[in-house]
Amino acid sequence: MPLQEIKHPAIDIDLRYATPDNLTGTTIYEHAIAFLHKDALAALVVAAELAGAQGLRLRVLDAYRPSAAQWRLWAALPDPRFVADPRVGSMHTRGVAVDLTLCQADGTPLDMGTAFDEMTERSCHGNTDIPALAQRNRALLLELMTIAGWDHHPYEWWHYNLPEPTRYPQLSDQVEGESLMHTPG
Ligand SMILES: [Zn+2]
């Protein structure tokens, strides 16, 4: 498996699908360990170091998503406007997408104008109905991630993926099924 755990001194992990604090209101993951494809992890470390140079931190809200979890998300919210159809697959099930925000050095999240996963026009890049400071914070995250080689998602300020994500295969469920989805005890 090309997946590697996200561990970096300027990155906090706050996987929302490991808690009910997400758009489905239910816990989707049985684990709270964040993984990415090694190519994506290398690009995330570049962004983390750029953030760290400004006294900021990254907070990862979602990363690699096992396809079993994509099915659970789909079962909770079977609407392709909000959740990728698991038969098609998500960029997250390829391990090359990350949902994240920026934080101050003490871990306090910056104001991005909306919550993670708020599926409204206010979550789109370029939306001017949010406070000016939040617009600037989004632009700063966009800048750091773009310099680090990520593509943005026009409708979701928190979502970034490597360019041409379909170059990367959907990752097998076998390993995650045993080692990630069913933690011992
Ligand atoms: Zn995403």
Describe the structure.
The structure is a single chain. With 185 residues, the chain is of the alpha+beta class. The chain has a single domain, classed as Muramoyl-pentapeptide Carboxypeptidase, domain 2 (2-Layer Sandwich). It starts with a strand and ends in a 6-residue tail after the last helix. Strand 6 and strand 7 form a beta hairpin. It has 4 helices and 7 strands. The strands form 2 sheets. A 5-stranded mixed beta sheet has the order 2-4-5-7-6, with helices on one face. A two-stranded antiparallel ribbon has the order 1-3. The longest helix is centred in the first third of the chain and has 16 residues. Bound molecules: zinc ion. The site of zinc ion has 5 residues, from strand 5.
Descriptive keywords:
185 residues, single chain, alpha+beta, globular, two-stranded antiparallel ribbon, 5-stranded mixed β-sheet, Muramoyl-pentapeptide Carboxypeptidase, domain 2, disordered C terminus, binds zinc ion
List the helices and strands and how they pair.
Layout lengths: L2 E3 L5 E3 L21 E3 H16 L2 E7 L4 H10 L20 E8 L27 H16 L3 E3 L2 E6 L11 H7 L6
Parallel strand pairs: 2-4
Antiparallel strand pairs: 1-3, 4-5, 5-7, 6-7
Helix pairs in contact: 1-3
The structure holds zinc ion.
Estimated helix fraction: 25-40%
| Element order: H for helix, E for strand | EEEHEHEHEEH
The CATH first-level class comes to Alpha Beta
Beta-strand residue percentage:
15-25%
**Amino-to-carboxy terminus distance:** 24 Å
